[in-house]
Amino acid sequence: MTRSLPDAVRKLVAEIETEIGESDDAAHAAPIEGSVARRTNGSGAVPSSPGPAGNGADRVEEAVRDILLEIGEDPDRDGLIGTPDRVHRMYAELTAGYHVDPDRLVNGAIFEVDYSEMVVVKDIPFYSLCEHHLLPFFGTASVAYIPRGRVIGLSKIPRIVEMYARRLQIQERMTQEIADFLDARLDPQGVGVVVEANHLCAVMRGIRKPGTVMTTSAVLGLFRSRDRTRAEFFSHLDRRSSTS
Question: What is the reported pTM?
Answer without folding.
Answer: 0.83
